[in-house]
Amino acid sequence: MRKVREILKLYFECGMSIRQIAISCSLSRSAVSDTVARATAAGVSWPVPAETGDSELESLLYPQSLGRKAKPESVKLDMPYIKRELSRKGVTLQLLWTEYIANNPGGYQYSRYCQLYREWQQKTADPSLHIDHKAGEEMMVDWAGQTMQIVDRETGELLKVYIFVATLPASNCLYVEPFLSMSLESWIAGHVHALEFFGGAPQIIVPDNTKTVTTKYCYYEPELNSTYADMASYYNTAVVPARIARPKDKAKAEGHVLITSRSILAPLRNRRFFSLADMREAIFELLDAVNAKPFQKLPGSRLSTFLDIEKHTLKPLPEKPYELAYFTKAKVNLDCHFEVKNSRYSAPRQLIGTTLIIRYTATTVEALHNGKRVAVHPRTMKRGQYVTLDEHLPKSQREYGQWSPERLLNWAGKVGPNTAALAQKILESRPHPMLAYRSCLGLLRLSKTYPPTRVDAACARALKATAFNYKSVKAILEKGLDAVAFDEPANNSPVVHENLRGAAYYSN
After folding, report:
1. Among 313, 335, 365, where does a domain finish?
2. How far is CA 467 from CA 101, 215, 439, 463, 475, in A?
3. Distance CA 443, CA 486 (A)
4. Same domain, 189 and 306
5. Helix, strand, or coil here: 483?
6. pLDDT by residue (tens digit) across 161-220?
């Protein structure tokens, strides 16, 4: 006797788990699970009607046991369906068997069910591709070994083209794009375009362990390139580089590189391209055909499988694509500025002397300290230019920020035209406005000590001497040179001394 009544009572009335019932009844968990599944399929619950005897109950759950036992082999298993469903998140063989036995009460036991599937998998699958991949879990990326060429229209030079390949192993959906180099910029662009093509981001990205990917190789904890890691963080995914000399870590990527070579690159081998855009268009046409091509051994295609089981499992993409970012280190100088690409940006005065991690793109510059952003500026491409936030400066320097060039020139014009002209020259000659403001405000203070006419005259003399600074004007006023014409001839009478020979000596 299979202890059917006891199992049903413990399960439906007592609410015990399969494991607890198996221990209580001294049965295997598979036997208990089988009985519960058959009872559910037959609509049998607890309590069992009193008129139902043990034989009747058993016949309801095991209809073949009273007659000739049907061969389980007569109950066909849809192996492609099982493989397809296992690609979905949360789906297990246990769940699929429970559904199977509910529809086929005389079918295989769980252990036999699993055995048959594994045997089928070994027979039909490529030995290098035996790993089960969950939908939305991985995106494998690589450069194809084969290259292509485009012809430069102006010079006739043949330019080498490199092929970026990305694949989602659960659905086998493929993305291919050509680039003129294998640089970091091309590598990141390939990822961004692939994620946009798939319409979402996977849990992890699996690349080769190359210099573009890692800055320092470690078998257990490889150190990722900062830009690559930044891109992964932007899309809320993670990069897990394949181990060196472990091709099975990304076997499907290797397989899809081969598919790319045979189905896309080979058909284009005799075509001549004169631009990367034309080549990209031709590749995308063949790519669509490859993704839409029906599988040979499985139902559907790469595209249909992707739309069915994988597209909805991908993480949503940010509103804007990732903007390529570079990382460097910079020290905050005494003027509260750090240097990036020959331009200077302010940082909080408390960080003077501190080395910061700088993240910069084509549009922004960010300063990071202990993982926290301490400053962000719009990037300037003008060499030597300062970009300053007033709150980063000490109070004494911040006061200068209240002045503008227009305000300074307006004030200088009230002193005199020469003062205004000198102030303009000072503003033009300083690399940073703060330095110019300090010099111009020095002239302001001089006008409080000396009459405006004298200050303007001193500024006129400084202009003629191309001395565009506060110190020169101050020295002119202190020595009274503002009253002396700049072009007044000095005393050029010859000096008479016995040791001086004079012109007559050399005429002899």
Report:
1. 313
2. 97, 51, 12, 6, 11
3. 20
4. yes
5. helix
6. 999 999 998 888 999 999 999 888 899 999 999 999 999 999 888 887 666 676 654 444
